[in-house]
Amino acid sequence: MNNVKIGVLGTGTWGIALIRLLANKGYDVTAWSAIESEIDYLNEKHTHPKLPGMELSEAIVFTKNIEDSVLDMDMVVLAVPSIFIRSTAKQVAEILSGKSEGSRTLPLMVTVAKGIEKGTSYTMAQVIHDEFKAAGFVREGASEGDDELSAAKVIGLSGPTHAEEVAFDLPTTIVSACEDEKAAERVQEIFMTPVFRVYTNTDIDGVEICGAMKNVIALAVGIAKGIGVGDNAKAALITRGMEEIRRLGAAMGCKDHTFAGLAGIGDLIVTSMSEHSRNNRCGQLIGEGYSAEEAVEKVGMVVEGLNALPSIMELSKKYGVDVPISSALDSIVSLGKDPKEAAKELMNRSRKKEF
């Protein structure tokens, strides 16, 4: 057995797929959920209701006590929805700050949520750093009020990775992103398997912007499908949507190569086209005439694109970046514009150069 101890916070389909992967590699995995009925089900059934046929190792510990998945861990994976990242990171930081001064070595903090926080427009890694700084974990040498990152090593794990495929060992690739290349490489080493190939990237901001904004574009592609357009228009939305992501990311200081990579165009393609994509499915329902609220209820899972949309609009204003597809989606979701009218307006915008 491997001596690495890993805590996973969140037992949705993506969290469970990663829990299974890590346990099957022989790591000591303890998983927590705030939803106690989920823990009861997992302990009893050793499977997940939304991943029928998948089996989980009985060696996995499922707990209702978050401290069990945080204390004395080498790595903590935050697999909760983006809207719960701050509250969960706050709990983790407070638990770790309560340890004795002689044992304040922090576990690697891995976020697999894809979103931008409403109000702050922080990426998920920035939210985690913010909570660790608030708990007193400040980088050595940092002064009060310093904008430097917290002492925690936060790694973003992102890419074209539907849980429905990872959970059944279908070949998958992903990116481990962190400013600290050695930390990214350590996460790469821990997660890598013959069917789960992990690359590294030091541009964590770019990786996380891609992860959040591709969900927004996937909603738009779904709406297009719902109103009955063909493959030509869907391909155009993906391509021009990627350009929106790249322009906004570039304005924020991200690296161009990230957008051409797995976390960029790779994740955008799979989220925009796959039958497993809840964002694409939600968009299709909106295109068919359902409200956003009704569509989310029918999907039955978190639709991260809708959570990220307000922050993407705020960031586009802050950085002065034109995002016509995202703006059209916002007019449909927030203002109730008819999707066909929004599509017509997109097609009749003034003439442009492609680049």
Condensed summary:
This protein is an alpha/beta fold. It has helices spanning 13-24, 36-45, 85-97, 124-134, 163-166, 181-191, 204-226, 231-251, 256-259, 262-273, 278-287, 292-299, 304-319, 324-335, 339-347, and strands at residues 5-9, 28-32, 61-63, 75-78, 108-111, 154-158, 172-177, 196-201.
Write the topology of this structure.
Blueprint: E1 5-9, H1 13-24, E2 28-32, H2 36-45, E3 61-63, E4 75-78, H3 85-97, E5 108-111, H4 124-134, E6 154-158, H5 163-166, E7 172-177, H6 181-191, E8 196-201, H7 204-226, H8 231-251, H9 256-259, H10 262-273, H11 278-287, H12 292-299, H13 304-319, H14 324-335, H15 339-347
Parallel strand pairs: 1-2, 1-4, 2-3, 4-5, 5-6, 7-8
Antiparallel strand pairs: 6-7
Written overview of the protein:
This protein has 355 residues and is an alpha/beta fold. Helix content is 50%, strand content 11%. It is built from 15 helices and eight strands. The chain has an eight-stranded mixed β-sheet with strand order 3-2-1-4-5-6-7-8, with helices on both faces. Helix 2 links the parallel strand 2 and strand 3 (61-63). Helix 7 crosses helix 14 (324-335) and helix 8 (231-251) packs antiparallel against helix 10 (262-273).
Descriptive terms for the model:
single chain; 355 residues; alpha/beta; eight-stranded mixed beta sheet; 15 helices; 11% strand
Give the low-pLDDT segments: none
Tell me the Rg in angstroms.
20 Å
- β-strand percent reads 5-15%
Helicity, as a percent range: 40-55%
**SS class:** alpha/beta
> Rough shape?
globular
Number of beta-strand segments: 8
Main beta sheet: 8 strands, mixed
Distance between the termini: 53 Å
Biggest sheet: strands side by side, in what order? Answer: 3-2-1-4-5-6-7-8
- The H-and-E topology, N to C, reads as EHEHEEHEHEHEHEHHHHHHHHH
- What is the count of DSSP helices, taking H or I runs of 4+ residues? 15
Round the mean pLDDT to the nearest integer and report it: 94
